[in-house]
Specification:
Elements lengths: L7 E5 L4 H10 L4 E6 L2 H13 L4 E5 L5 H8 L6 E4 L14 H29 L2 E6 L14 H19 L4 E8 L19 H12 L9 E4 L10
Parallel strand pairs: 1-2, 1-4, 2-3, 4-5, 5-6, 6-7
Helix pairs in contact: 1-2, 1-6, 3-4, 4-5
The structure holds NADP nicotinamide-adenine-dinucleotide phosphate.
């Protein structure tokens, strides 16, 4: 699947929001493995990415299902993994249901183990590869309603930076991108989005991170909006 001229990127949560934007940003330079639960939305993203030059494969997968992740992804050897999928239920702790707690932990934390575990061995064996996880400024900050979500994003920081130290000498890069608020479905209808980052802003940072020189690792990047929002250059 991997060729010297056209690397492959596996993107989780590629059906919408930031993951969709990352697929579009990487399409001119990468072939794509796109995963999420919504098959129709993935197919629509694949059409857009194909028009930009990518060869695409959609993989319908629920990241709460560890066994399904292993059976579906084992044996894939992408050059880049973007651990992007995530969900946020921002409520006071005493209002969170067990299902809301477990879903966030399963997708935002446990899937990092299962997805990364499926593709990292091939990167280490090859002596190259890049694992990028979409964290959040909530991985550094705390807020009312963030006991689970901010907790999962703090986990991302410890996971990413420990893994980076483990595999950098094997030639594999591990990075975390920490956006502030981005205008996506993560926020409920009616939220004021006028000041937020666009998904494409985060995607451009990811593409830039991948394009850094082979011997240089950009480990951690925070992405914040300028206010008021300016037109794109
Ligand atoms: P989004 O628009 O809601 O997209 C979330 C993506 O995750 C979707 O593609 C969704 O696909 C996928 N997903 C959710 N649950 C899943 C599951 N059980 N199995 C497989 N895929 C699942 O949210 P977003 O804002 O783009 O979020 C992407 C990442 O950015 C998340 O990690 C989020 O924490 C992070 N982030 C977002 C913001 C923000 O302000 N929006 C800020 C900082 C960090 P399906 O529903 O099709 O499965």
């Amino acid at each position: 699947m991997t060729t010297a001229s056209r690397p492959t990127a596996l993107i989780t949560g590629a059906s919408r929001g930031i993951g969709r934007a990352i697929a579009v940003a990487l399409a001119p330079t990468h072939d794509l493995l796109l995963t999420a639960r919504d098959a129709n939305a993935l197919a629509e993203v694949a059409v857009s990415a194909t028009a930009l030059g990518a060869s695409c494969r959609s993989i319908v997968l629920d990241l709460r299902d560890a066994a399904a992740i292993s059976s579906t992804l084992d044996g894939l050897a992408p050059d880049v993994l973007v651990n992007n999928a995530g969900l946020a239920v921002m409520k006071p702790f005493l209002s969170l249901t067990p299902d809301e707690w477990h879903s966030q932990v399963d997708v935002n934390i446990n899937a990092l183990f299962h997805v990364t575990r499926a593709v990292l061995p091939a990167m280490v064996a090859r002596g190259s590869g890049h694992v990028i996880t979409i964290g959040s400024l909530a991985g550094r900050n705390t807020f009312v309603g963030g006991s689970c979500y901010a907790g999962t994003k703090h986990f991302v920081m410890g996971f990413t930076e420990s893994l980076m130290l483990e595999v950098r000498d094997a030639g594999v890069k591990v990075s975390v991108v920490m956006p502030g608020s981005v205008d996506t479905d993560l926020f409920p209808e009616g939220t004021d989005r006028s000041w937020m980052l666009e998904p494409a802003d985060v995607a451009e940072v990811v593409a830039h991170m991948i394009a850094t020189p082979a011997h240089a690792l950009q480990g951690r990047v925070e992405v914040r909006p300028l206010s008021p929002k300016r037109p794109r250059l």
